[in-house]
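Input chain follows. Return structure tokens only.
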Amino acid sequence: MNREDVLKEMKEMIGNKDPIEFFDKMVDMFGILFDQLDRMALELKLVNIKSALAIKWEPKAASSIISTMIDSLREDKETYFDEISKLKKAYAEDTVTQSYELFCQFWVDVFGYHPFLNY
């Protein structure tokens, strides 16, 4: 359920339904808000890491990007099994993180797009 639907239902309930139903929808809305905050916090962390990389290449920051991507892809292990395996190997060997060029080429080879395309 999206926030517009929840808000619309909440407005329609005022004065028409039991307060428990209203507060049930309020809990749904808090769930939506907290999910959005979690996504924004992760995105902010990635932006901070990538900003540091834009100034000076840091292998540890690149390793952190790989680790974050592994965690993200684990939610759908079956679909991204090959990608996860390649990322784990790269993380363990710590070779593709040593330079910007190697890291970008590795990312393009695995995912088909530049790692900093979104930013």
